[in-house]
Amino acid sequence: MIGNLLIFLALAAVALVLLGGIVVMAIGGQTSARWSNVLMRYRIVAQAAALLIIALVVYVASGR
After folding, report:
1. Predicted model pTM
2. How many Cβ atoms sit within 10 Å of the Cβ of residue 33?
3. Could you read off the pLDDT of 16-38 as tens digits, one per residue?
4. Which residues make Cβ contacts (< 8 Å) with residue 45, sequence separation at least 6?
5. What domain range is 23 assigned to?
6. Is 5 in contact with 57 (CB distance < 8 Å)?
7. In the chain, how many domains are there?
């Protein structure tokens, strides 16, 4: 149960950062130049954390 919640929160964080990047790209101009790279780094970190959480949940659920 808690594993499902953690996975959902991790995937939601990735989706929010990705959506923020899309919005910043749509705005363009100085805002895009300042935030695009930062949001991409945050997305990579969020994806890595999500993969780690998924792997841990699968490992614990397997009973090992």
Report:
1. 0.83
2. 10
3. 999 999 999 999 888 888 899 99
4. none
5. 2-61
6. no
7. 1
